[in-house]
Specification:
about 500 residues, mainly beta, Immunoglobulin-like, 4 domains, 4-stranded mixed beta sheet, 2 helices, about 10% helix, elongated, disordered C terminus, cadherin binding, beta-catenin binding, Cadherin-like_dom, repeat, Cadherin-related family member 5-like
Amino acid sequence: AGICLGGSDIFASVKENSPTGEFISNISIRGYPGANTVKLCLTGDNANWFYLEGRTIRLNTSLSRVLDREQVQGSVLIAELTCYEDDVMQSQYRILVEIVNENDNRPNFLPETIQPFTISELTPVNSVVFTVKAVDADGDMISYIIDQSSLQPDAWFFRIDLPNSGNIVLNKPLDYETRTHLELIICAQVESNSEEKFNTTALLTVNIEDGDDQYPHFLPCTPVSPGVPVCMSPTYTTNITQKHQDVILEFSPGPIRAEDGDRGIDTSLIYSILSDDQSRFVINDRTGELRLTRGVDDRRLTPNFTLNIMVCQVDDRLKYSVASVLVRVLYENTFPPVFNRTTFKGFIIQSSSPASIVSTYGNQVLQVQVSDRDFSDGLNPNIHYSLHPLSGLYQVTQRGVLIARTDQLHAFDRHILQVVARDEESGEEVSASVDIEVLQRGQAPRGAFTEQQMFGDVDSRLAGGIAVMILLMFLSAFLFLLLRTMKRRRLQRDPEEHTAVALEKHPN
């Protein structure tokens, strides 16, 4: 009866994930199992985690059955050791084995804390905007870190003040107009003394909600500088004539339209005219459509009108912008400008002077001008002259005079230019060619005594015929005078001949 005596309850510990056969404890009974009819048995809920090897208790695991503290019910394995002699139970001892935890699990974020979320762009800096939370099956402390590498520029908008809190704090002001959403990576890391530090990461999406912090602006928007969401108001322009009245005006750029600077809110806007001394215009306060109500009586008295148009938010009149409107009163355009010929001819003498004026073969200044029948004197003050294409040797003034860079010209050259006359009000264009001959110093123009000098604007064929007729007239007059002179001389010699005959002498 004393063989099963001498034992005691067993209290031990074993690390989770320990291999099979790991030593648990020795049994201190007097007898030896298998001899003298002594038998030991393990019973209880967790008895299958152990096996006996003589008077030693060892851990019973396998590849498919690993001791995992997080998977076992509780953190202690409980069993009973019963000692039998001749199949009669003599003693029973408790076995309590604590499973020692190891850092063998990664922390996991709670899904509800890493969902996309929205914050207002007006959120104050240093405010806690959201909180993340991760759990570790091993029960270890978790610290949180924001990935602020160069690949995550959005991370600098946030910071974590207390590493174990999971509270994310706004570090920089938000601006919906430049960024509508941000992304950052949060890392949760287990704090333990083990060599391996288990961690996990989560990508968070932060949607920025537009706040009412921008003023309305007129379109098109021209930023004051690249990357700055502040617009310079355009100047809207249009042209009318004295006959226009009670019409809706079309502008360039146009139409007159504005939008709320807070695109995500798009508050309703209202338009108004700030300055209209003559009460000649009305504006649709909802669409910005501008109407001319009365015509202009005299363009010379009112050549243009300048208005200031204001747009403001319906719900906040202090948020507004102002744009200028220029309405120009033009002459009625019935006839296009025209040149009096398609080709002008002139010459220039090569010299060392930097500039000279091109002349006609009649030794007059060559002036290439258009006439416009819309004006009583034929001169349209809105005509702009230019060369097309631009020339490095010639320029044309706004009075149609051609100026040449004579120090860069070469004698005996010939240049064909195209002069374009554009009506800056109507946009009409007309062109003519200019044929310029470059003469050597001291060289007379080849056409100086030709029909082009004498009949500058007359067709060359007609001028040639007239020149021939005048030449014949000169020849006829010359012959007439010659015959008349010869006749007079003959009459003067006749008395001398009669006297000589009387004296019997020859007059010679």
